[in-house]
Amino acid sequence: MKKRMSEGLWGYFFILPQMVGLILFALIPLVSAFILSFMKWDGFGEKQFIGLGNFTSQFHNPDFKLALFNTAWYTALVVPVGIFLAVLVAVALNKVRGKVIYRLFFYMPVVTSSIAVSIVWLWLLNSEFGIINVYLKQWFGIIGPDWLTNRQLVIPSIAMMSIWWGLGGNMVLFLAGLQGISASYYEAAQIDGASKFRQFWHITLPLLSPTTFFATIMSIIGSFQVFDQSFIMTGGGPAKASYTIVYHVYQLAFVEFTFGKSAAAAVILFAIILTLTLIQMHMSKRWVHYGG
C-alpha cells in the first residue's frame, strides 16, 4: 500500500512542471479572457460589466464578418490542399532510399520562424522583382500578377505560403501512418490482381483515415488562428482583403485598446473552433477506420 502511494506521489511530482505550465499559461488566461469578454475595459481604468454587449457588437461589426469570411476562405484553401499534398509526398517517400534525408528537408520549414518564412515569401511574391514573377516571365513569357496587392489573389497567395510551410509536418504524420500499415494487406491485394491505384484507394487511404482525421483537425485549428503571415506580409491589406479573425483580435486589443471586445472576438473564435472539432469528431465515426 505504501509503495503504491509512493509511486503515485512520484508520478504527481514528475507531471507537476507540466501541470503548472498548463494552469499558468493556458487555463488561467482562458478563464480570464472569458470573464473579460463581458467587460468594458481600455487596459487602464476600471472594468465595467456590460453583459453580452461585446458579443453583440462583434456580430454587428462589418470588420468581424469580413475577418470571418477571409479566415474561412483561407482555411478552405489550406486544409484540403495541404492534406492532399502531404499524402502524395508521404506515399512517394515511403519506400524511397534515403527518405530520412528527404524527410529532413521537407520538415525544415516547419521548425523555421514564421517571421523568417513570411519575409522570405514576401520577397518571392514581390510583383516587381520577386523570383516567382521573374521565372514566370523568363520561362513562360507570362507577366506575373500582383500576388499580395490584388484583393482576389492575396488570400490564395498567403495560403500557398502556408501550405509549403506546413507540408513537412503533415507529411511526417502520414509517413508514420503508412509505416503502421501491415504489408499483408498489399500482398493479399496483389494476389487478387489489384492495381497500384486500387491498393492506394481501398487499402492505403482507409487505413490512413485516423492520421487524416488528426491532421485535418490540427490543420483547421491552425488555419483559423492565422495571423503572422497576414501581419508581416500584407498588414491585413489590401483593403482588409487578408484581415483575419486573430488579426481582428489584435487590432481591437493593441491598436484600439478595447480589450473587452477583443476578448469577445477571441471567445467567438474559440467557440467556432470547438464546434468544428466536435462536428468532425461526430462525423469521424462514418469514415475513420482503425485497423492494423
From TrEMBL:
Q: Which residues cross the membrane?
A: 12-39, 72-93, 105-124, 163-186, 207-227, 259-279
Q: Which residues form the ABC transmembrane type-1 domain?
A: 68-280
**CDD domains given for it?**
TM_PBP2 (cd06261)
A single GO cellular-component term from the record reads: plasma membrane
What's the chief localization of this chain?
Answer: membrane
What GO biological process, any one, is recorded here? Answer: transmembrane transport
Membrane topology per the record?
Answer: Multi-pass membrane protein
Record key words, sorted? Cell membrane, Membrane, Transmembrane, Transmembrane helix, Transport
InterPro entries this protein is in? ABC_transporter_permease, MetI-like, MetI-like_sf
* Similarity comment text for this entry: Belongs to the binding-protein-dependent transport system permease family.
State the name under which the record lists this protein. Sugar ABC transporter permease
* Upper lineage: Bacteria, Bacillati, Bacillota, Bacilli, Bacillales
